[in-house]
Amino acid sequence: VFEACIFDLDGVIVDTAVYHFKAWKRLANELGFNFTEAQNEKLKGISRVKSLELILEWGGIEKTAEEQQVLATRKNDWYVEMINHMTPEEILPGTKELLESLRAAGIRTALGSASKNATVILEKVGILPLFEVLVDGNTVTASKPDPEVFLKGAEALQISPEKCIVFEDAIAGVQAAQAANMKVVGLGEQDVLGAADLVVSSLEQINMQTLTNLYSK
Ligand code: B16
Ligand code: MG
């Protein structure tokens, strides 16, 4: 029924949103305005460049493309400094167990993330070897809800999209998976991710059987 699983990173495997929040808040404060957790929520799954555009818009500030480049790099330097201290304890519950049981069952695995820092994060939390293929912000040109990131993952694994299941915490990611003609499991709230084939609050609720059931509906 299914032959591959493609995982988003932030919000599915680890909660890097807390580090994004700290770094963006520091930047916003330096520019003279505030940045809230509610605003940070809206940046989930959104690329770095696009996130900065939104933050500047919320702060009512205009910057040239060159200035934006400098600001994005500054934010990323602070962010990288924080993720360099990540440990395996930061893997979200059930993630490692699920990846291991998928691999034991012969299911192929890929990462499908908007982040350009995905490799270092997976290395720091110690699960890089559990992924056969990494598709991230360095390889993708169109961001979610465009299906590119997931289609590239399926292509690299040489598995047809209908046989792939995506795990996503952001609505744009759920839409991207559906545009790719894949099944999608939403991680989060039913009222936000209701469009997904199944919504759970944690990967602890997922096993081979729950995934197989997605194909019998
Ligand atoms: P970086 P995902 C996304 O990760 C984050 O949710 C989003 O907040 C971030 O701006 C984006 O990665 C880019 O990250 O600055 O590290 O390239 O959910 O697609 O794994
Ligand atoms: Mg995410």
UniProtKB/TrEMBL annotation:
Pfam entry (one): Hydrolase
This enzyme's EC code(s): 5.4.2.6
Keyword Isomerase: yes
Keywords: Isomerase
GO molecular function: beta-phosphoglucomutase activity
EC top class named in words: isomerase
InterPro entries, sorted: B-phosphoglucomutase_hydrolase (IPR010976), Beta-PGM (IPR010972), HAD-like_sf (IPR036412), HAD-SF_hydro_IA (IPR006439), HAD_sf (IPR023214), PGP-like_dom2 (IPR023198)
Family, per entry: Belongs to the HAD-like hydrolase superfamily. CbbY/CbbZ/Gph/YieH family.
Annotated protein name in UniProt: Beta-phosphoglucomutase
Species of origin: Chitinophaga rhizophila
